[in-house]
Fold these 4 entries.
Entry 1:
Amino acid sequence: MECRGKITAIAQDFETKGILVTLSLANVSVQELQILKAMEELSVYLKRYREKRSLDANAYFHLLVGKLADKLSISKIRCKNIMIGRYGQMDFIDGQPIMIKTQIPVSDMLEQENLHCVSCGGKTEENGLQTYFYRVYRGSHTYNTEEMSILIDGVVQEAKEQGIETTTPDEIERLKSLWKGGKNGQKTKECNSE
């Protein structure tokens, strides 16, 4: 179960030394919680709430990528991967960035629709085959509002540099006002995009 909520009280159990947390939860039924309470043990994951990115924002991102791809005479998939590599969010496991090693050359990797990778510039030969190193980036559908805002700002700037008409600044601000995201996101350092 995933829901939105707030911590309303924190205390320590003197007998077990465990931490007691009281939550106020939205959009959850008592029946759902009773089922969870009956379980012997739960895996608990708490994180700061962020509004999910607007579908309008994601549609706008893809619209601009399409216009950029046409202007640059490259595939939309390639353009999307380049933009995600420049302005998107790296993927992590246990706080470590995900890196892959493969024989797939950069030109082919940039054409992968469901795997967003950026070359880290490393290239070696193993068993007579060229081996390439890549950083893995998350797809835009996983971004929160703040991350999507960073991505769109970067793509809007790229489009303007290419002379592509973007939506009005007021409309961009309207889209951003729907996101209601914080400003904690950080632009990731760019590897070589091509």
Entry 2:
Amino acid sequence: MADSYNNSNKAYRRSIMLHSTIRFIVCLLLTIICLLPIYIIVINSTRDTADIIANGVSFLPGGSLIDNISKLNDPTIQNGAYTDTYNVLIGYRNSLIIAGFSTVLTVFFSGLTAYGLTVYDFKLKKFATTFILAIMMIPTQVVSTGFLQFMVKIKLYDNYLPLILPAIAAPAVVFFMLQYMRSSFPLDVVEAARIDGCGEFRTFLQIALPIFKPAFAVQAIFAFVASWNNYYTPSMLLLSGKLEQKTMPMMVTAILSNDKLTDFGVRYLAITLSIIPVVVVYLILSKYIVKGVTLGAVKG
């Protein structure tokens, strides 16, 4: 009996180790697939055009990073070809203003909407939820013409406001928040707060927000990335085309679409600089995601 038990125990351990090894290999391959393109872009930003054309893909950095930075920022090189369309400080400033405010508005008001649909019972509750989900099915491009005409009529084109204020209505974020709250938010806490005399808005700020930090962090990352990478709406509304108004995607697109600017190292450098803020935001908010996963595991 003891031998059979030991043999079965060893077989079970081998099975566990085999499954763990397979999962580790799959995760490692997925990580490499996701990070390899970004790594190649960063490496190519340190190489010159001749090296990129002659040797193709390289996993070792080159020695032309300083030259690429000079070409990208020095107006005396190539008659200011790059500085007429690209300025990293201006691009960072404009994109951070738009993406930062849009992210805050998206996360806060979407969480507030989901909180109301979760906590309160009213006659049109199901209709409101269905209506929000229905709006998710409408692509932005379908309503873009009417939106542009409306902005022109109220004279809000060439302005950052129409790029920021519509972030208040984010149906996809509301849907995620709604599912998260329905599955993990204890309504008894709200009732207890009401008995203690806490106001409704104060209950949301002091009780609901701390509980939903992981969900808010996840949606903040998605909202920031979506707003930062958004090229379609800013290019449609910022009609003057001034460098002082352009966002990072507009500047990068201007460089990539210009056939006269064939310096591949400079192009890759422009792309690399546009990625850095997204990585920084993820690193800042990722700790809340990890905490949320750990908390869910403990509760389970």
Entry 3:
Amino acid sequence: MTVLLFIIGVALMALAIAASIALHELGHLVPAKLFGVRVPQYMIGFGKTIFSWRRGETEYGFKALPLGGYISMIGMYPPGRDGADGRAGGTSPLQQLAREARAADAERITEADQGRLFYQLPVYKRIIIMLGGPFMNLLIGVVATMVLVTGFGSYQPTTSVQTVAQCVQTVESTNANTANSTECGVEDPRSPANAAGLQPGDTVTAFAGQTITSWDQLTELIRTNADTEVPLTVERSGQSLELTITPMLTVRPIYDELTGTYLANSDGSYQTQEVGFIGISPSSELTPGTIGEVLPTVGESLERIGATLIKLPARVYGVAVTLVTNGERDANSPVSVVGVGRIAGEIAAHDQIILRDKAASLVSLVAQMNLMLFAFNLIPLLPLDGGHVLGALWEGFRRKSAKLLGRPDPGPFDPVKLLPLTYLVAGAFLLMTMILVAADIFKPVSIL
């Protein structure tokens, strides 16, 4: 039964990934056709075509490698300055590469395509076409987040105590996990919560003379009242109890909520800070949200994703080192579509997670995956959508500048000139994908 549930989880995520890719490409296809551009192909995947069908002037189909998708549009490359198809010119490898790409694109153009070529469109129409794909991912991410927030809700910390630590462990700068250890050492002092008589199930109603309404408020008060004896009011079994407690000044690792990791120094050690600490953790309860919380939640997710993308090359390098040295993989390391599918399978197969939470976790994965695709595709590098948008904007700027200065029209943006950089970027992305896929097979991340 466990294996069957694992397969079902993987299959559901595979369908979600395929649907996300298909809708991304549909976001490009629809405006391209509305603006009159001829689109010969709409494909999900890369490599050899598994099956396809033709409707009108477009071939629709699936290819062998389900690692993305594409639509091909006629006239992506403008004519070279040396001729309509760019066959003349220099003999360097880069010039040869550019000529071959331009010639291959020119061979598909017929007389009926004149006026329907991509590069002939106004700048704003090209931008709409290229942003259509990422916008679809953003839309999916927003809808999935709305379902998650309003339909399932999220577990929020309460002011009720779930656990009380027996002692306070010393945190090492080289090991942030010691902050979460449950084993007490001989020299570890008794925790303030334990000394004050706090028990699991207590609800904190007042701390340091302030009425407590949230866990975040309580945490801030604990941190700022180190080495100070303060009054503490709890509700236990329907009765209100007055206690006193002295938060201990302790060294804690600094947790970055944007990336979900502990902050590290350049030498690899963890950054720490001295704060008040009493040794309790909160219970959580499932709390449905409102429509008004959806966009802020999406914004927070995109902020975390942006911080992750900035560090992506370094983090992928860390995964490669782990793979080569057979080290322990960081639970917060990036994953490929293989890793996402595996995580979905583990969630579906786990017998300690109720069906509602399994469904919520899968919806959350779909939301985060699409928001990641949205942000990733906006990176202003070819061959990504953001690179084409930047190129169109650059063309618009050059043409307007030339018009204002009375100079000749510089012509359309020519992505052929950036083919070497395009291939370099595509190769880097392919290499990162291969590293992550290999790591997800041989050193998978387990979230359970």
Entry 4:
Amino acid sequence: MKKIFKYLSILLTVALLGSFTACDLLQEPLEESAEVGLGIKVFFPTKVVAGQPMTINGSGFATARAVEFPNGVSVTDFEIVSNDMIRVTAPAGIAADGGLIKVITADGEAVSRLPLTLGSTSVSGYSLEAGATIKGGEQIEVYGTDLQFVCAIELPDAEGNPMRLEDECFYRKGENKIVITLPKKVFDGTYVAKLFTFDGKEFLLPELKYEPGAEGGHWEKKKTSIWANDGSHGAVSWSSDYRFAADANKTGEEIYAIPDDVWAEMKAGTFYVDVEAENPQIRITTGWWSTTWTGNDFMPGSEGLTDNGDGTWTLAVTLGDDPIMDVIDVQHLLVTGDRFTPKKLYFMK
């Protein structure tokens, strides 16, 4: 009997030691996975030309010393926005067939999982032929490939001086089409305007007869900012970070309190949300998660969500008489979902 108890005691001890060892083996990788080290999660845009602004998201960037592009091109002049984000301008000399990018820090280097692609803009045509007449305030369409890299147009102002207008005033339809609305005050005459890309290419528009439009000196529509991400706020992953409130109903939970008159304008008309993403899933709901605008999420292919072709998407939001209007003042407005970073809210007017 003593021998039986002795053997049982030995077996129990072995079993307990085995269970502890198994637990230790299971716990160790869990503890390691909780530690976030140096790594590149994603970067935008994934297709670039020299001079193209880029954002790299990941972790462990605080001691970054260089960003290396395909073909071994190293950039040391960049902005460390946070430990999780770097802003950099794509350099000249990137390999034609693209490749992976690296972030090099004092502790090591991180390599992207996906490759960077090098773009090349070409223009195949315009909506107007040489000799046509166009008035200030009217539109001209540009067709081609990789048009997301067109960043400005130059033409004479009302006094005949060169006027360079940046791409915020372009309406992009993917990578193959741009719609440009002329300023109303243009020089009255026949001349050739120029398009510019980030990498310094120039494209000449057809020689057109330009005539001033009605009174005014602005673009027919332009972006009027409501809120812009200063770079300190990262990607959405079903979080409540991007919560907006009217100033009269702020509670301290919001990322930004919107002036009451602007809030009223958002409710009465259309505003736009720009996000940085490859494949976003966007939900416009309330801070209480009680009511979703339209009842649906917005993903590539959804009506109202436009791919700008440069790593960003634009969602047009018209609240109208949607049920969210009954609760939005008290419950606030939340931009959430997955796989994107909100960049700005604005009107087009």
